[in-house]
Amino acid sequence: MFKENILDFFYKTILSLIINYFVIRLITEALDIEITSFISLIIFSVSLVSILLLTYVFKKPISIIIFISLALIIMLYLNKYQTETFINLNNIKNEYLSWMIDYIGGLTFKIDIYIYILVSILTFLVSLINFIFIFKGKKIYLLLLLEAPIFLYRWFLYVDVALIYFLFFIIPVLLLYTYKNYKKNKGIWIKEKKIVKGNIIKNWIIYSIIVSVLIVSFSAMLPRDFPPITWKWLDKKAQGIFPGLTEWRNSKKSSMGYGKTIKFDMTLTDYQSDKRRLGGPVDVKNVLVMKVKSPKKVYLRGRVSNFYTGTYWKNTQDVYHEKIQNQPIDLKDKKIYGEHITQKIEHVNLLTSTIFSSYVPNIVKNIDSFYSTEEYELFSERLLLKGEEYTVKSIKPYVYWDLIYKSKYKPKKEYEKYLQIPKMTPERVLDLSREITKGLDSDYEKVEALVSFLRNNYKYTLKPKKTPYNRDFVDYFLFEEKEGYCTYFATSLAVMARSINIPTRYVEGYITPDEKKNGKYYVYSKNAHAWVESYIENYGWMTFEATPKYDEPDYAEGKDKKEEKEKDDNNIEYDSNLGNRELNMGKLQELQKMILPNEKEDINKSEEKTNVFKYIIILIIIVSNLLLLRIIYGYITIKKAFNKLSNESKENKIVIYYKYILDLLDLINNKKEDDETTTEFSNRVKIKIDSSYNFKEITNIFNKARYSLNEVSNKDVEIIRNYYINCERNVRIKLGTLKFFIHRFIIMDMYKK
């Protein structure tokens, strides 16, 4: 019976590890956690430890109550006396919780130590849920109903690998289901006193594996991209209630009226493949996406982001005005004086609900109704399809340079969000920004100095290295990578300007090429672009171009040279080496040498802490795996011993069973001394075993088999075998299951040769 329980435990444990791994893998990839071999090792190790721990806790729930009580008492004591250890631990806990909430919400970047802890926590929680269903629950299909939607949801969002994970998830679930049926049937067979062959469980497992793999393999070969049933009325109702359905997997997304919002962002272009990670090498295609009729070259705004996480940009809120229908956009600044520009835009190979515009959009034509955010992002109620055209009339405000050169940001509550930078942004980024703009008065001059610095000292390339997961994107670009494309330059400019208290926002869209064809700008996929809009007092949001490949916006065309000369004659004190266009890399290196030492020391300390923590985790994992190997070795050794025992003679069987009984008695302080005979030991030992025979009778059978010439019977073998089984059960109860398990499979001081 005990042997069958061990087999049951091992079988369920192996299947649980597989299920846990693929559920956790799906969750971690959704959180943009790279699945390395080390992360995989953490998942398997924590899963195994969780299963062993939960097995013990469920058998002895009082232990967890005692543990929690002791932990609570210790925490109350430490809290009362506010020891240094408690304060440090509390600070670490608060810091971690703050990071975890921000990271899950997509508001910060990765830190290796924290990622390992997060994966461990997620693994334990998933292991707990799965343990309840697999080891304690009777209806395994409930596990399928609970976790299968997670895989399907990810697949519907075009995460193709989710389907592969689901196939690896469903196989062990099917095996568990068939195994539950086997146990149920076995109970019926026992009640009906049917003869059950000893190897039926092995055959059952083998056949169930074959059948499950065949079922899943056949399912995997079925087509998955079949078109949905078209029911327009239901489509409209469903998409009206759940607009997110438009982003789900569907081969008919381009059908008229299907869906409401697929907002433009750089992940719809070749410049960004991961929603939660900027940068990395790109392969830009040359597909015509739109045709634009415009009097001049323009930036076509698609998406505006205000929150930088350290690895990518996002919007903290989408604030919509009222629905706009056949009327001008409600401008926040009622009176805007400027040049009126009209663009006629035709979608060619672009599927989005975003309405592209430039400057301050005022009127949209040929689109029945749309919405506008406070940043003047425009969205249609439906997808704009191939061949559709719309017209946008915008206002390009006049630039009054005498006021621009006096611009100084006056704090406004509505602009606070455009000053946000991550708490973990390295200080050297801020120091570099301050040093570059030192001595400059106006915000415009400061932003221009940052633009000059980036354009003249960093290289444009489409093949930069990927930013390490635990590094701030801007910091890595400025101080190590030093080359990249538009997202690198725009993000760096936005963050650097914010660090000196100038509001900025990160903008994604397209830039029209320099030349027209047939009176129109032909905009290709390679023209996708990211740039910065900075709030300049006395003007509003002004476009700045930091990417060296592109010309700067044409605001400078109207600049009065006389005003510029007068400004220079005023002897405004600022470092000309930093403010002009000729800043060289030597100056950058000088700045880095001045700023870098303390930061480098902090990075080294952080890396040392990371390495120590990593070594501790590696040590725990190694010990856990050695422990697992030891358990497996013990199980195999004992199984071989009993298989070999079945082929022994009757006399040898009795001798070996008697020795096993002595091993068991030794565990509960009933050891036979070396100079003591078996008869003397049987007279001395006092133990009650639930058996119809006592220990003296068992000893007599042993003596007859070992020392007598009289032949032993099969009944004698059966008597001593049953006594051994009962003895094992009694010893396990007295020691406790965990302690007995340790002696049997780890210490292995039972069943010694």
Please give the structural blueprint.
Layout (H helix, E strand, L loop, with lengths): L1 H29 L6 H23 L1 H21 L2 H21 L7 H25 L4 H16 L4 H31 L8 H22 L10 H10 L46 E6 L5 E7 L1 E2 L4 E2 L9 E2 L12 E10 L4 E4 L4 E6 L3 E4 L5 E7 L4 E9 L3 H4 L22 H10 L6 H15 L1 E2 L12 H9 L1 E2 L1 H14 L4 E8 L9 E4 L3 E9 L3 E5 L16 H9 L6 H4 L5 H61 L4 H18 L10 H7 L10 H13 L6 H22 L1 H11 L6
CATH fold node name of the largest domain: C8orf32 fold
What is the averaged pLDDT score? 78
Distance between the termini: 23 Å
The secondary structure category is: alpha+beta
Low-confidence runs (pLDDT<50, min 5 residues)? Answer: 225-233, 243-247, 249-260, 557-585, 595-601
Largest beta sheet, briefly?
A: 5 strands, antiparallel
Q: How much beta, percentage-wise? A: 5-15%
Backbone CA Rg: 36 Å
What is this entry, summarized?
This protein has 753 residues and is of the alpha+beta class. It has 22 helices and 17 strands.
